[in-house]
Amino acid sequence: MRIAIVNDLALAVEALRRVVRSIPGAEVAWVARDGQQAIAQCERDRPDLVLMDLVMPEVDGVEATREIMRRAPCPVLVVTASVRGNVGKVYDALGCGALDAVATPRLGLGGGVAGAEELVRKIATVRALAGDAALPGPQALATGGVAARAPSATPPLIAIGASTGGPHALATILAALPAALPAAVAVVQHIDAAFAPGLARWLNRRTALPVALLSAPEPPRAGRIYVAACDGHLALGADQRLGVSAEPRDTLHCPSIDVFLASVARHQPGRAIGVLLTGMGRDGAAGLLAMRHAGHPTIAQDADSSVVYGMPRAAANLGAATEVLPLEAIAARLVALVGPRT
Q1: Same domain, 333 and 190
Q2: Catalytic residue among 34, 53, 163, 302
Q3: pLDDT at residue number 294
Q4: Which of 66, 210, 247, 284 has the most CB atoms around its CB within 10 Å?
Q5: Whether the predicted model's global pTM rises above the 0.90 cut
Q6: Residue 147: which domain range?
Q7: pLDDT tens-digit series, residues 138-148
Q8: Quick check: is 163 catalytic?
Q9: Catalytic residue among 60, 100, 190, 253
C-alpha cells in the first residue's frame, strides 16, 4: 500500500513516516508540503491513500481534497493536529470526499511515536475497503420475512445511507425537503463516532426539518431527521422503533448501511424509500436490494454527481435501485414518492 503524506511541518512528516513504515506492506509514496504540491503529485503519481493535513500555506487541506477528488480521485484521510479545533474544516473536507479524520501522531522521547494507534486502525479500514470485501448476500440480510403492508399509523420512512462525500450530498438533499414533509428520515453516514454529534448539528443548520442524533429507541416521526449515533448499528425493530444494536459484530462498518436498510425491509409496515449515496466500497448495496425485494422504491445516486461512485455502482450492478438519479433530483423525487401530508 503506497501512502502519501501532505503536511508542512517536518516533525509531523517524520512521525507519519514512522507510522507508515511500521505497517506491514505499507510504504511512503511521496511527501508534499502544501495542498498545491499534493494536487500535482496525485496527478503524476496516484497513491493508494493520502494522509492530508488541514491547515497549510497556499492551498489548505479542504481545497486540496476537493481538487484531488476532481482530478485524480483516491482515498484521502484527514490527519490534523487538532480535530476538534478544526471541526468546521473537518466537515468541509468530508463533504469534499475525505474518508475520515484523525489527530496527527507525535514524536515521543526515544524516537517513539505517540498516538499512532487510531491512525493505524483507520488505515487498516481503508485497506479493507480498497480490497472490496465480499458483498453479503441479500438473503442473509433480509431473513425473518417482510412486514405486512397493512395500513398503520407509522409514517413513511426515508432510509438514507452515505459514505465518502456524504455530508455534502446529505446537506443538498435535506435542504431541499419541505418543513411539512409527511415522512420520517433516518440517516447512516460512515463517520467516526466522535464526529456524529457535530454532523447532526451541522446538518440541522442546513434544513428546515429538525435533525437529531438517535440516542434512545423511539418510533420514527414525520417531519424529523434521525442520524445514527455510530456507537452501534442503526436498525428498525419489530416494534417499529428506531434503535441501536450491537449485532452483527463482524461488519466492516459500524453502523452498517446494509444492516439498517435490511431492517427496514423486514420491519417497516408501511411505505419506505431506500436511498444510497456516494461512497467508497459496497456497504448498502445488498440492503438496498433487500428493500427492493420487499416492494419499496429504491434510489441510487448517479456516477456524475457522486464524489466516489462505489456504493451506488455496487447497488446498480446488483439491480438494487429502481431509479438512478443525479443528486440534485433526489429530494424532489422523495417528496413525490411519499405523497402529500394526510
Answers
A1: yes
A2: 163
A3: 94
A4: 284
A5: no
A6: 138-338
A7: 444 444 444 44
A8: yes
A9: 190
